[in-house]
Amino acid sequence: MSMNKIVIVGTSHHTAPLEFRERLTFSASELISTLKTLKLHQQIEEIAILSTCNRVELCAVIKPSAKVHILSDYLIALHQIDRREFDEYTYNYEGFEAVLHLFRVASSLDSMVIGESQILSQIKESYEQALSAETTGQLLNRLLTKAIQVGKRTRSTTQIASRAVSISYVAVELAKKIFTNLERKAVTIIGAGEMGELAVRSLVENGASKVSVVNRTCERAERVAEMFDGTATIFDNNLDFLIETDIVISSTTAPHYLVQTEPFKEIMKKRNNRPIVMIDIAVPRDIDPRINDVENAFLYNIDDLRHIISSNIEERKLDAKTGEEIVREEATNFSEYIKMLEADSTIKALHQRFDQIIERELYVCVNKADLSDDQEKIVRSMTKSIVKRLLHQPTKNLRQCFISSDNDQDQNIQIVQELFELGQFDKLD
Q: Containing domain of residue 399, as a range?
């Protein structure tokens, strides 16, 4: 009789180093196939996957008897990760805590940059991917839609977004550490994604002039380059585009290093060892971390950004507190919605039980009394009317009992199930 459960298994910058998060990321094609595979699991009813540079989370609706570890087991097997290491760097939530966590994520309260806007579009994309794979249903559709709404509400009712220290801001600060003045500095963006575009825009606003966009596809590279009166280059594994640049922002979805150490050393010779700042915000990383050991190469990854991001945390504390209040309120409301669904499911089964009894007894009565069709209609109508009246107030009381936070809902359901012998309706929606 119990409802299916909402669960989340994941890892993020809060719990795991970059090296571990890299191993759990999904490419677009991997994500769709994984969704479809998980949906085939007999204990999983609905599933969506959020995979970003800072987190990987599986959000699922599982059967009441299922355990959250079915998602963990899958990830461990898929990525060939030691269980002890997996348990150390991951988290799982169930029920209200899962809803609360997702709403916090959507509101950017769990982000490295509190107030950043990318996470909301990433959740939308995750939802669209799950819809495309046909792995969502009533509950997950409602949950993800609500999460997006909560994220928007948090941004519209607080100043959290306007006070956010963005990745683009951090890129400027890092570049200034090496180049005191960014005037006439050349910038190259590898990949043409939103985060890289924002970082380049901020660098240009701070004096950088020459912009180059390097991408696998020409159309996207040209579109972004046009925004900055820059040039577009097709990436073909040739690193010569690094010879004349000063600052590199890399944010592709490549599964391997695009900039390797040995070819890069040759580039540095051609540059006469001029300093170069490289900011790798991709997960998995685009730039071999060993490049940081090359003289005059200053490489930063996504986890290196935390030190700068904390600079205006005091300004954001009040907004974050208000955001937390909004999120908890919305999570509580959603939990009430789930309770109502379960109440309605149980009450539906109760009514079906009584309908079953009515039909059985009417069958016996009609056959014994040899009633005419009209007489049968009258008896049937009267019987159903009586039962309806008898069930009206108990149904009302049951619904109130089920949704009350002061009661153990599972225990209430069990009592009703045993009292009215509703076990046969366990599989009813």
A: 338-425
